[in-house]
Design goal:
This protein is mainly α. The chain is built from three helices and no strands.
Amino acid sequence: MAWPAADKQPFAGAQPGADNSATVPFPEHKSASAAPEPPKRSGFWRELAGAMAAGVVILAAVVLVLEVISWSRGVPGLGVVVLVGHVVGAGLAVFAQRQVDRRTGRGALVAGLGVGAVVVGLLVLFWWT
């Protein structure tokens, strides 16, 4: 079989005997990246509230581990009230942080202040001697 026309150069991958003279482009579709992006919600105060909430969760996990170790060895630990207080405080801080991430304006501000209040409350009630 011969190439279709002597004056046309075949493109890479052309097959002898096939009609390689014209190509039809596919219709262009709008990609998902072309959709407008939602406004980014970042900022120092929002990130600080997230760090405080994460710190409270880590503190609650540490208190839980220490309490389990003290129970297993038969020595007095921090106590059930302290453990429950830290777990409840961590839950409240995470809930408030979710509201900070989902809201804008005054709602985010109030939720961020709530995270701070939970952290200060835990530190004052259980760690300040």
